[in-house]
Amino acid sequence: MSLDAVLTRIDADLSAATDRLMELLRIPSISTDPAFKRDCDRAADWLVAELNRLGVATEKRATPGHPMVVGHAEGDGPHLLFYGHYDVQPVDPLSLWDRDPFDPELQDTRGGRVIRGRGASDDKGQLMTFVEACRAWKAVHGSLPCKLTFFLEGEEESGSPSLVPFMKAHADELSADIALICDTSMVSRGVPSIASQLRGMLKDEFTIIGPRIDLHSGHYGGPGLNPLREIARIVASFYDEETGRVAVEGFYEGVHEVPEEQLRQWQNCGFDEAEYLTSVGYSRPHGERAYSTLEQQWARPTLEVNGLWGGYNGAGSKTVIPSEAHCKITCRLVGDMDPDALRAKIRAHVEARLSTDAKLRWDKDLEGSPASVMNIDRPEFEAARRALTEEWNREAVFCGMGGSIPIAGYFKSILGLDAMLIGFANDDDAIHSPNEKYDLRSFHKGIRSWARILDALR
Amino acid sequence: MSLDAVLTRIDADLSAATDRLMELLRIPSISTDPAFKRDCDRAADWLVAELNRLGVATEKRATPGHPMVVGHAEGDGPHLLFYGHYDVQPVDPLSLWDRDPFDPELQDTRGGRVIRGRGASDDKGQLMTFVEACRAWKAVHGSLPCKLTFFLEGEEESGSPSLVPFMKAHADELSADIALICDTSMVSRGVPSIASQLRGMLKDEFTIIGPRIDLHSGHYGGPGLNPLREIARIVASFYDEETGRVAVEGFYEGVHEVPEEQLRQWQNCGFDEAEYLTSVGYSRPHGERAYSTLEQQWARPTLEVNGLWGGYNGAGSKTVIPSEAHCKITCRLVGDMDPDALRAKIRAHVEARLSTDAKLRWDKDLEGSPASVMNIDRPEFEAARRALTEEWNREAVFCGMGGSIPIAGYFKSILGLDAMLIGFANDDDAIHSPNEKYDLRSFHKGIRSWARILDALR
Q1: Residue B221 and residue A304: Cβ atoms within 8 Å?
Q2: Which residue of A has its CA nearest to B353?
């Protein structure tokens, strides 16, 4: 009965909840750009005030970067820690937005009502689903459903430089029974999803140096070693075009096949492969031939070139053999792949293929983080899955995620906490892009979903 | 006697001549970049004023691009046409210059005094050797040595788009007995050289388009087609790494072997292979294994990548699968290679290797010009060779050139004019590169060389 009262309260309060979210969206808390430092601070202040209003004893906590928002509420039952982030991505190219990214509004679209504005989905709208669920609970019951810790950061979109030091310094304060993270999307529209595995990440960058200086391609074309030709050959050698596999020796060490049962679940999870591919201009998947699109995205590692450059790229032409060529790569890691070991393998691959007279320079070591697999055998996962199924009237699924959210790994390694990733974003939310939006349905049913989950877990 | 007086005058006037060259070098006449359009105009104006001061009736002549400078001086004896160019290459990467490229100065180096600055060698310093020889002649004799036409262009470094139309439209005005071109280098330091064959040139540029928009490499890494991987594979496919040959089908059609006798001459022309290679950081030549360094440079064709870019190249990393990847190429042509036929072969090679879902866009057709072989049986060539031998106290040689000066071919095909290419640049002049310089000795003895050649030809 009491859950119904909370859900009724949520429905009645939706308009006010949306207004509150709009307030937060109006604060341009772009964490990567120092020009918005004060705005990040204001967003943190806004959340501190909101949480204190709910009876959560909350403070802004200084870091070398943007502040953390940390709040505690006593209560019975399990101790849940909720994580979200209040910072947002930059908005460029601004010319592609159909309105001021920080003047949000409700819009009617073919896909339904949406909240349009930077951060609407990633992650202000998502984090507010949990806050609003707590607010409704408190309004109905006079207290929160259980012991709660809020842990909200302001540097997620700029690499979270303060996160690990802060977690380590405050490990006791941040202890709990399980962490809840609301920063992921649903596997398909209307299909409630719990992310049960995330890929890890390795970054690296190298430069190939040919001649000592840029050369004239008439004077040295022929005898001259061209680092652009060299880097093209080396990048091409990363891949086996027959199989679509990465051809770096030992690359797949630590990669495991997806269990049959999980594969079957994924096949029925509502993922719309055709829509996923055609929406960006593909007629077929381009990864490893032996695996399905979903496996390629969720369960297989990648070696991706994110930037490649050298020589002249201005208007017209320049007859140059450049001195240097550059390449930025990232790998997505799965299973037990070890970032440090993988870095060494990739570097050895490049070094072994270098021509006489070509020199190689690696960037200072860039970060790496292993893949995360959630502990879905914990009873909280099945309880949350049932709650989501009820709310969305559609079997909730455990799905993989192609992206990397290192926080889940940190909760485990630093705090010993399992994390449960539940989010209500859709693939077309345009996060990190112009015209970001969050479906009003995601916001509304997201709040209701958390109320049900809190009810199931308390 | 009168030649001695001219040479004496040249020696006495060297300091003033250097100052005049500095003035011209201060004008940043980068023809390929529209931002410098006014500066190209200023360089043309400067030359018009200089030539009029010598009694050459000179005008700036409009073209759709940068203006031509055309001047005529009446006189007895043969009618010589002198060609040079007043435009210069871009200066990037600016950070590698040890000073402002357009604030030239005299510097003492281990190799002697040099004039440092963009265009010092290519081609402002070289063209001024001829102008200063005329000035000294006029100062001593009160008139120029023979009938002269000056034809100076401002688009040589950006493909000379206006050159052919202008020559065709003004063929009568540009008629002469022979053309003199000062835009080449000496085969080795101190060895006076007449270029008897030049490679031709073909330019092209293509873009490979993968996804419709930039993608997140977590969300699409695996199934996503990455155009950077695609372009690396295609660039790598241009070459047969075993033999060092270009692997485009039919690429070598029209290429001829160098006759035995010419090869023997080249072997004795003073080319210092070790210096040529080690000065830029090479321990061996990197072209076709079956040919010598000189053949690779002068008599063999190339397919060179001059620019390759796509994705993120800023600080840090960005987990992007970019929508586009770009490649600029140039080929050097020899023998009877046909630029248009070659363009079609290269485009077919790329198109045939494109993956499903990758799209290809070629730049609007860029120019091409075949190789040139000079008519060294004309008596002016032997006369000039003797004059150069006298000035440099070293047997002058007929050599090949790796670069492309399409103008020589145009003089022949449009105006019916043979061209004689004599230049005083050195291989270490860093033309098209940071810290370009021209040896003061090249400038000084270059002026003296032209005085001797004019004396021999008049």
Answers
A1: yes
A2: A241
| pLDDT profile of chain B (458 residues), mean per 10 | 92 98 98 96 98 97 98 95 97 93 97 97 98 97 96 94 96 97 92 93 96 92 97 98 97 95 86 92 97 96 98 86 96 95 98 98 85 91 97 93 87 93 93 95 98 96
| Secondary structure class of A37 (helix, strand, coil) | helix
Over residues B38-94, the pLDDT tens digits come to: 999 999 999 999 999 999 999 999 999 999 999 999 999 899 999 999 999 999 889
Please give the tally of structural domains in chain A: 3
The interface predicted TM-score of the complex, written ipTM, equals 0.87
Percent of chain A with pLDDT over 70: 100
Asked whether residue B271 is domain-assigned, the answer is no
Determine, yes or no, domain membership for B413. Answer: yes
Task: Indicate whether B450 belongs to any domain.
Answer: yes
Domain end position, chosen among A339, A369, A399: A369
B53 to chain A, any CB pair closer than 8 A? The answer is no
3-class SS letters over chain B: CHHHHHHHHHHHCHHHHHHHHHHHHCCCCECCCHHHHHHHHHHHHHHHHHHHHCCCEEEEECCCCCCEEEEEECCCCCEEEEEEECCECCCCCHHHCCCCCCCCEEEEECCEEEEECCCCCCCHHHHHHHHHHHHHHHHHHCCCCCEEEEEEECCHHHCCCCHHHHHHHCCCCCCCCEEEECCCECCECCECEEEEEECEEEEEEEEEECCCCCEECCCCCCCCCCHHHHHHHHHHCCEECCCCEECCCCCCCCCCCCCHHHHHHHHCCCCCHHHHHHCCCCCCCCCCCCCCHHHHHHCCCEEEEEEEEEECCCCCCCCEECCEEEEEEEEEECCCCCHHHHHHHHHHHHHHCCCCCCEEEECCCCCEECCEECCCCCHHHHHHHHHHHHHHCCCCEEEEECCCCHHHHHHHHHHCCCEEEECCECHHHCCCCCCCEEEHHHHHHHHHHHHHHHHHHC
B377 and B353 co-located in one domain: no
Residue B212 resides in a domain: yes
Neighbouring C-beta atoms of residue B99, cutoff 10 Å: 12
Among A369, A401, A420, where does a domain finish?
Answer: A369
* A212 CB within 8 Å of a chain B CB: yes
A188 and A247 share a domain? no
Q: How far is CA B40 from CA A140, B47, B88, B160, in A?
A: 78, 11, 9, 14
Do B325 and B219 lie in one domain? The reply is yes
Q: Please say if the pLDDT value at position A343 is more than 90.
A: yes
Interchain CB contact of B207 with A (< 8 Å): no
Note whether B307 and B424 are same-domain residues: no
Instruction: Give the closest-approach CA distance of B83 to chain A in angstroms.
Output: 20
Mutant choice from B32, B158, B235, B280 vs A, greatest count of A C-beta within 10 A: B280
Best interface-test mutation with A: which of B91, B219, B288, B399 has the largest number of A CBs within 10 A?
B219
Q: Which domain holds residue A429?
A: 2-198+371-457
